[in-house]
Amino acid sequence: MKNNKFPGQDAIASKGWLVAHKWLLLRRASQFFILALFLIGPLTGVWIVKGNLTSSLTLGVLPLSDPFVILQSLSAGHVVAATGLIGAAIVIVFYMLVGGRVYCSFVCPMNLVTDASRWLAKKFDLPKGWQPSRHARLWALGTVMITAMVTGVMAWEMLNPVTMLHRALVYGTSTVWTVALAVFIFDLVVSRRGWCGHLCPMGAFYGLLGRASVLRISAIKRKDCNDCMDCFEVCPEAHVITPALRGADTGTGPVVVSGDCTNCGRCIDVCAKDVFIFTTRFKNEAPEKNEQITDKKPTPQRAA
Amino acid sequence: MTGKPSAPTSTQSRRRFLGNIARAAGGACAFGLVVGIFGRQAQSLPAQVLRPPGAGNENDFLAACVRCGLCVRDCPYPTLSLADVAGDIPVGTPYFIARNVPCEMCDDIPCVKACPTNALDSKLTNIDDARMGLAVLIDNETCLNMQGLRCDVCHRVCPLINEAITLEMQHNTRTGAHAIFVPTVHSDKCTGCGKCERACVLDKAAIRVLPRYLAKGSIGEHYRLGWIEKELKGESLVPAVQDMPDRLPFGSTIAPRGPK
Ligand code: SF4
Ligand code: SF4
Ligand code: SF4
Fold this sequence. Notes:
The complex is a heterodimer of chains A (about 300) and B (about 260). Chain A is mostly helical and about 300 residues long. Chain A has 14 helices and 5 strands.
């Protein structure tokens, strides 16, 4: 039995370490770059981006707002000003192009925390713990909006650890680590990948945007797959891979269409057979005849 | 995939399907209650905490402010801050505490201009129309002016001196020969900027800016002040006092008063 604690060994051997970590490195670079953009202003006094991820102003002209928070405000009955609405519209269009949960994998500061927690949990073989349904976050999203309607205030923003973390980082408040630590411990001991993978209503919101987004992962060379399971092991939402990679015999196209996919590209990194590429959702033509796989593949275990 | 509501094929799977739905709905309800309770609790702001100019009542503000801090960044003074995670102010919302740093009442109101959501109302274009709170001379027992001294600091620092705050002269009954100049705030002019509270020379300020709902009384809807009504109408609302004939006890000798 292959040791899946360190997936990607085959890819490193065949492609070299750097290529086998390309998207992971790009992703980390993006996360830190965006954080740096927000921090340069307060640290040096040269303002490129003002505000935080809920609403910001770039170079004094480009307004951007988090559509998830703006939707809460609208639900609470506030008539949001044009600047906020335009900012949210720009963000929506952007994520409709590049993939909704690109927010999760390339922007959200909490991803660094939950990825670290997941890494540690795997290293020490901690139990997965509580694994609520993947639909829990959709229920959470609905509940957040209904609570805003009922209370008439953005009640979730009193608790939302994601906006709290980014605000605390940018505004340098003393309790910056408390929310991050809370989510880290929750993911580590209560529920592995519980926050980003099951509960976060913000991730659910961007996942809904991603259901129609253009840029997608495709298991284009799925007939080369040798069942090493490394992609399932690294994927934060492993269930999205199955229909695309194993869909040949059921006539499903090779594109990962689920909005849950974060477009993190880690599957591209770890696949020694170069099965995955980035493409558009329109390149999802029916599988060719010669792609039909005769022997039934084992159903993959959902990775944490 | 677990939890996916697929079409039930047998009684058993239908039961499982309904069970899953019930569990999810129950979880959502519990979650909603917790979130809702937090939301309601956070609406009681400590009395010394003031919102930036243009903020509506606390409920409306918490529906509108996305806690981006753009107002904080554009305030040229160290007036505004975003509330920290631990504390009794709704997390991430902008506020100021007058005794620490008051609002300087900028002519161009940069904080309002910066707000992307209209949580700070863009209709506020004249800072004198801001109503962040209302100053109240809260302690007559320590205010130096009320002891008959001439401190007057709160009056002198007011950006709307002699409009929002005036000194009203009263007789000093202690000395019998001097005056007391009572610092008197006028709610139709006071912006609640907090400069008076900041400047009060006492160890603890005798004049403080409170949220307007705490600071302001209100007369009953039905209540009419006679002299005001008379002024409005130009004459008394009731006909002139009628002179009824005086009924004197039999044999009285007191001469009846009034015109004959
Ligand atoms: S699921 Fe939520 S916390 Fe996780 S990366 Fe996405 S938005 Fe951030
Ligand atoms: S009016 Fe000026 S001093 Fe007052 S809160 Fe706004 S920006 Fe700051
Ligand atoms: S700029 Fe407006 S939305 Fe942003 S923190 Fe200030 S009041 Fe709130």
